[in-house]
Design brief:
mainly alpha, 5 helices, about 65% helix
Length: about 80
């Protein structure tokens, strides 16, 4: 395997999401750092509880800040 290869996620976002991300996550490297933490949290939950986690998020019956431990902690700190 090529030593320069680095796996990546790539997906489309809306124009509104791009504008918000550009405004709120403008610091170099912060997007990568944040989404790595979120991805690890999500994968941990899916390993522990299975696809029900995906269903809860996609049904919009649960917000990520209600489900993902790191997001819940960030929300608590933001509200304090």
């Amino acid at each position: 395997m090529n030593e320069e290869y680095r796996p990546r996620f790539s997906f489309e976002i809306s124009e509104e999401q791009k504008i918000r991300a550009d405004k709120l996550l403008a610091t170099h490297g912060v997007r990568k750092a944040i989404f790595q933490v979120i991805l690890d949290d999500l994968l941990d939950l899916i390993e522990e509880f299975g696809p029900v986690v995906i269903g809860a998020l996609l049904s919009k019956k649960a917000k990520s800040s209600d489900v993902l431990p790191e997001m819940a902690e960030a929300k608590r700190k933001g509200e304090a």
